[in-house]
Specification:
220 residues, mainly alpha, single chain, 6% strand, Fumarate Reductase Cytochrome B subunit, three-stranded antiparallel β-sheet
Length: 220
């Protein structure tokens, strides 16, 4: 009896939520988005120039970070290493009527969520769209000589609107991540409790594994 009880205390059932490729892409994009946000402030409000870095340095950091922004996502989707990322991308783009109602009612609709709830899916789609839009409009703004005035004007407005949206989305994402520590830890370790998955993502059926307290797999 003592042995059985001790075994239950020392082990826990975990499921793999994010692999190394997914976690790496997430954190690289997080660093790059924060860098773009940090450098965008003095570019938008000129009075901040010189507070930390000179104008040219800020412009170059913003430019090259923006040009490299799509790279982590693209690399994470390619090759055999991107199998889980591609699978999750299909999940994100697959919506049920119940999920749409959940989004319309701001979460008041009770649903049996998949691996990602509708809010997380919407955030992922907006983030991917922002990467594409900011890249394209930023390209037009940087090499404006090759484009007509109407394109440059449209790119300016679109770039600014999406930038404001990114600031709001990142702020909301950080607040929600800090308020859900178990979910946030899964983006660091890759694993999450099977009990959490059953409670918050009942329609998701991952392969469980038994881990000891140090986080190492044990025989079942």
């Amino acid at each position: 009896m003592t042995t059985t009880s001790t075994s239950r205390v020392q082990t826990a059932v975990r499921v793999m939520r994010f692999d190394r490729v997914q976690r790496s892409a997430h954190w690289l994009n997080a660093v790059m988005f924060l860098t773009l946000m940090f450098t965008a402030i003095p570019l938008y409000f000129g009075s901040f120039f010189g507070v930390v870095f000179e104008r040219h340095t800020i412009q170059m950091v913003h430019l090259w970070t923006g040009l490299l922004l799509p790279v982590p996502l693209i690399v994470s989707l390619l090759g055999p290493w991107g199998r889980n990322m591609r699978s999750d991308w299909r999940r994100v783009n697959r919506w049920t009527r119940a999920e749409i109602r959940w989004l319309r009612t701001l979460g008041r609709e009770v649903i049996r969520a998949d691996k990602f709830n509708p809010g997380q899916k919407a955030n992922a789609i907006f983030t991917a769209a922002s990467i594409v839009v900011l890249f394209v409009t930023g390209y037009i703004l940087q090499w404006f000589r090759f484009f007509p005035v109407s394109w440059r004007e449209g790119a300016t407005v679109t770039h600014d609107l999406f930038a404001f949206g990114v600031f709001a989305a990142v702020a909301g994402h950080v607040v929600l991540a800090l308020s859900h520590p178990a979910s946030m830890r899964s983006m660091i370790t890759g694993r999450i409790d099977a009990a959490w998955a059953a409670r918050h993502a009942g329609a998701w059926t991952p392969e469980p594994e038994v881990l000891d307290q140090a986080g190492s797999p044990t025989a079942q």
